[in-house]
Amino acid sequence: MTKKDGSRAGSLLNFVPMNDDMTRERLAQGVSELESRVGQPLPLAQSLHEALLGAVFPLTAEELTWVARENEAPPVVLSLLGGLPRGRFASLDAVAVALEDGR
Fold first, then answer.
1. Which of 12, 32, 60, 84 is 20 to 30 A from 73, alpha carbon to alpha carbon?
2. If DSSP codes are grouped into helix, strand and coil, which group holds residue 103?
3. Which residue ranges make up each domain of the chain?
4. DSSP 1-63
5. pLDDT digits (tens, 9 = 90+) for 52-78
6. Which pTM value belongs to this model?
7. Across the strands, what pairs with 89?
């Protein structure tokens, strides 16, 4: 909307252009705030190890998912395990390789 004098009205008055440094700074602040609330993200290998703690191999993808649920694995790990191909996995390393190949 434009006023009679040619100036813009409304929300554009509050607009402050941001440069790249300001954008990076705000992004870093947001990430820091998020990490303080939920903690640092775990690498896949660590999450997988914790999810499959106590597993006795060989196991199928379905059995791996069951063990991970019992270990209260995060939903993302359960989803990854549920997407594994059919067959038996001989070790935790075999599971990790299959997950890496599937990405």
1. 32
2. coil
3. 44-102
4. -B-TTS-B-GGGGG-----HHHHHHHHHHHHHHHHHHH-PPPPHHHHHHHHTTT--SSEEHHH
5. 999 999 999 999 999 999 999 999 999
6. 0.58
7. 59
